[in-house]
Design goal:
With 96 residues, the protein is mainly α. The chain has one domain (10-92). It has three helices and no strands. Helix 1 crosses helix 3. It starts with 9 loop residues before the first helix and ends with a helix. The mean pLDDT is 89.
Length: 96
């Protein structure tokens, strides 16, 4: 008889890892509750704890990239408006 390997969804892994990180129940209790080997729960918990700092740094990096993009667009608009204003001044004879 061949055992079929179980594939767990990312949501399930996150749920189990979060429960393990909370520490309300032991790994053995979680293993029996979720029908997953304790070693697997420990691996998922370690993955969760290692990836948490990246989660917040990526958000900050994405926010900074968005801010830089917005700033570049605004500088481009300012430059375009300055060129138009200079052209209008020259055409109207207000150029001093």
């Amino acid at each position: 008889m061949q055992n079929k390997r179980r594939n767990h969804t990312a949501a399930f892994k996150a749920q189990v890892a979060l429960a393990a990180a909370k520490g309300d129940k032991t790994i053995a209790e979680l293993a029996s509750e979720y029908q997953v080997h304790p070693t697997q729960i420990t691996q998922w918990k370690n993955q969760l704890l290692q990836s948490l700092p990246e989660l917040f740094s990526r958000r900050r990096q994405n926010d900074q990239e968005h801010q830089d993009e917005l700033t570049a667009q605004l500088y481009q608009q300012i430059g375009q408006l300055k060129v138009e204003l200079d052209w209008l001044k020259k055409k109207s004879g207000l150029d001093t």
